[in-house]
Amino acid sequence: MTSLNDLPLRDDLRGREPYGAPQLAVPYALNTNENPYPPSEALVKALGEAVMDVAGSLNRYPDRDAVALREDLAAFLDTDTPGVGLTGARVWAANGSNEIIQQILQAFGGAGRTALGFEPSYSMHPIITAVSGTRWVDASRDEDFGLEPERAVAAVEEHRPDIVFLTSPNNPTGTALPLAAIEAVLAAAPGMVVVDEAYAEFRRAGTPSALTLLDGHPRLIVTRTMSKAFAMAGTRLGYLAADPAVIDALLLVRLPYHLSAVTQAVARTALAHGEELLGGVEALRRERDDLVAWLRAEGLRVADSDANFVLFGTFPDRRRVWEGLLERGVLIREVGPPEWLRVSVGTPAEMAAFRTALRQARAAAPADGGPGNSDANTRNTGNSDAGNSEESL
Ligand SMILES: *Cc1c(COP(=O)(O)O)cnc(C)c1O
Fold first, then answer.
1. Which residue intervals of the chain bear CATH 3.40.640.10?
2. Given a cut of 80, is residue 365 above it in pLDDT?
3. Per residue in 31-84, pLDDT tens?
4. What superfamily would CATH give domain 22-38+280-392?
5. Closest ligand 1 atom, CA of 233?
């Protein structure tokens, strides 16, 4: 039997584990921040027809530059953030925002270069960084999961990174960044600044998008995805908005015809039905706010969330709580700072199942501290090196 050790694998890949959020068949999957509402019957039909339309020409390569799709994405961003005035020339698309991030690292990272992030944050940033041969530096978030502009700027000035990652709203904490923090990093950064806005559509009223900073900042990249609010995780479609010169750079590294004709057709059909697909977002926001209030009333610490998930704790033995939930058919995510857990916001029925299971699991495992043990409504992690070893998606 051949093992990995027998192969001439790159030295820097030896000992690494593949990405592995558990994919288990459970009644209540609240672990990967998907939108719980599937497409309607009418939309399923429209998606099928769109695939039929391209099926007859699948002997040909797709539009290499996905021009029509990029125009549609630009039009959507204009409705999401009125006034940004984007065109297809300032939007780029790929197979999930993970591929977008990979292309950014291929173009602006690489051997001898550095990317900087503030953890706990999205674990794929350091993973894709490392796999691209780029050095990763974690400057860590504040105790309350925020990011003081002065500290962020000090980290940028110390490390002079080629790429800075900012995630807003942040995964796994749900924390949105004020524009002042992003502007301060933009002013100090010598290289590219990537603002990962995978959850932007869930942000609370009054929370601005970094899209509003694109004018005058040619090194800013704002990434988005159709996997979360847009309820199309299975389509694999991520995108970015940036200066056209940034897209010229990405054209150098992208694989030819990277977006299949099927993907382009399905994504365009979904965008044409955007109102329907995003129709559940308001309900999910309310469900999230109710969940935060309920968890606090249970005596738990909860991070404020502008996303479709909630980070809560603290549990001296979080694994036991996670397992207790799983035994009751509820799969959440063991991720982020060591004593915290993350739950995605689902349908009212899913959240009711989660609440019942959490109460039962905590009653059955008093070692977790039980109700009332931790300071309610505080967001102090007390641990800044958290989130490095666990993955979050
Ligand atoms: C889920 C997620 C993504 C990646 O999503 P894709 O499915 O690859 O588009 C990117 N960034 C963050 C912060 C995420 O949580």
1. 41-277
2. no
3. 999 999 999 999 999 999 999 999 999 999 999 999 999 999 999 999 999 989
4. Aspartate Aminotransferase, domain 1 (3.90.1150.10)
5. 7
pLDDT, one tens digit per residue, over 97-120 is 999 999 999 999 999 999 999 999
The β-bridge partners of 313 are 301, 340
Ligand 1, pocket residues at CB < 6 Å: 96-98, 122, 167, 171, 196, 198, 225, 227, 233, 238, 393
Predicted local confidence at residue 270, as pLDDT: 98
Would you state the pLDDT for residue 252?
98
| Residue carrying the six token digits 């043990």 | 373
Report whether CATH 3.40.1190.10 matches the domain 41-277.
Answer: no
Q: What angle is formed at CA 239 by the lines to CA 33 and CA 172, rounded to 5 degrees?
A: 30
From the CA of 227, how far away is ligand 1's center (Å)? 7
What gap in Å lies between CA 177 and CA 195, rounded to an integer?
Answer: 10
Give the number of residues written for the chain: 393
Residue 110 and residue 128 in contact, taking contact as beta carbons nearer than 8 Å:
no
Q: How far apart are CA 98 and CA 333, in angstroms?
A: 19
Indicate the SS3 state at residue 138.
Answer: strand
35 CA distance to ligand 1 middle (Å)? 13
Confidence of residue 23 (pLDDT cuts 50, 70, 90): confident
Q: How far is the CA of 39 from the centre of ligand 1 (A)?
A: 20
Is residue 257 over pLDDT 90? yes
